[in-house]
Design brief:
alpha+beta, 2 domains, two-stranded antiparallel sheet
């Protein structure tokens, strides 16, 4: 009986495909149900004088965790998922600076165009 089963599995690729698909679905479900991190981390902006100096990741419960990291003197930690280095922070709100290409150029600056240099 076992020999017939081996012969069936060996020569029937559809059966192998179905077994493989069931295995992949089971493993995928197991991986999706498993938490990747045992601890939830939070993004935070390190702010000095109203400017985001860096974005850091702090453990859930910070600063009330063992051996908690402390920000340097004069720096403030603000939890945010949107803040980035160079952003400004005022009145509880982060603002991203204009891209240099969106800023108005001074009038005495030349601009290279397809036909040559022009002045503002």
């Amino acid at each position: 009986m076992f020999q017939k089963f081996i012969h069936f599995v060996k020569y029937h690729s559809a059966f192998n495909f179905i077994i493989g698909a069931v295995f992949l679905v089971a493993v995928s479900a197991l991986l999706m149900a498993t938490p990747v991190f045992a601890q939830a981390d939070k993004n935070a902006a390190l702010v000095k004088d109203g400017v985001v100096i860096n974005v850091i990741v702090l453990p859930d419960g910070w600063p009330n965790v063992e051996n908690a990291w402390k920000p340097p003197a004069g720096h403030e930690v603000i939890f945010s998922n949107e803040a980035g280095p160079g952003d400004t922070y005022a009145n509880g709100k982060f603002t991203r600076p204009l891209h240099p290409s969106a800023q108005k150029l001074p009038e005495n600056v030349g601009i290279l165009t397809a036909t040559g240099w022009t002045t503002g």
